[in-house]
Amino acid sequence: GQQVMQIPQYQHVQEGEDFTTYCNSSTTLSNIQWYKQRPGGHPVFLIQLVKSGEVKKQKRLTFQFGEAKKNSSLHITATQTTDVGTYFCAGPGAGGTSYGKLTFGQGTILTVHP
Amino acid sequence: GAVVSQHPSRVICKSGTSVKIECRSLDFQATTMFWYRQFPKQSLMLMATSNEGSKATYEQGVEKDKFLINHASLTLSTLTVTSAHPEDSSFYICSASPGTGKQPQHFGDGTRLSIL
């Protein structure tokens, strides 16, 4: 079945440093979504990428979707302590609609040291 | 924005107890809801798809008799962990989306289940 791999599992940075997490799928994805989960909280939708090679920005966050639509990345510029949390990528699950059933990557746990 | 409410937020109970978790869409109707399970520092694993008015669809390896799902209305899905044991201790979380599936999933706050 479809697998979504995400690296690194953990990332510790000093405040102000940049951060990147990478996501790779075993199959071509119709879209990829990114979620953030704060410690003790629930996943919150950040963005969806649909087009091959798409790049979207949200303030200090930059999201990319690969040309082959099998990989994606999230880059945070100049991290802040508020960026702490686990970042998940997610692709459509087998048999699911675009936004429905999801297969999550393992997540990257980001720690930011002040 | 769309809000999904999940209750209770935390349950601690003895082995053998059955526990019911509710997932409600507060400001929209959801014909489909999803139930996930998450172990500490791990990813969300889809357990089942809850379908309003029909049987839930379970992922491979998930026991349907152990995890009973009922989706009796367009705003409520329940997950019952029957005869829970310590290995069932986990973070259970639901998600739902308004419309016809063209909008992102909104997650409930989750239920932390601890079986003693």
SSE blueprint:
The complex is a heterodimer of chains A (114) and B (116).
Chain A (H helix, E strand, L loop, with lengths): L3 E4 L2 E5 L4 E7 L6 E6 L5 E7 L5 E4 L2 E5 L5 E6 L8 E8 L9 E3 L3 E6 L1
Parallel strand pairs in A: 2-11
Antiparallel strand pairs in A: 1-3, 3-8, 4-5, 4-9, 6-7, 7-8, 9-10, 9-11
Chain B lengths: L3 E4 L2 E4 L5 E7 L6 E7 L5 E8 L5 E2 L8 E7 L2 E6 L8 E7 L9 E2 L3 E5 L1
Parallel strand pairs in B: 2-11
Antiparallel strand pairs in B: 1-3, 3-8, 4-5, 4-9, 5-6, 7-8, 9-10, 9-11
Strands of chain A, count: 11
- Counting copies of identical and different chains, the oligomeric state is heterodimer
Q: What's the total number of strands of chain B?
A: 11
Beta-strand share of residues of chain A? over 45%
Order of helices and strands of chain B: EEEEEEEEEEE
Q: Given the C-alpha coordinates, what overall shape of chain B results?
A: globular
Shape of chain A: globular
- How large is the share of residues in beta strands of chain B? over 45%
Radius of gyration of chain A: 13 Å
Percent helix among the residues of chain A? under 10%
Mean pLDDT of chain A: 92
Structural class of chain B: mainly beta
Q: Which sequence of SSEs, written as H and E, runs from N to C of chain A?
A: EEEEEEEEEEE
Structural class of chain A: mainly beta
Largest sheet of chain B: 7 strands, mixed
Give me some keywords for this one:
heterodimer; A: mainly beta; six-stranded mixed sheet; five-stranded antiparallel sheet; globular; B: 116 residues; mainly beta; four-stranded antiparallel sheet
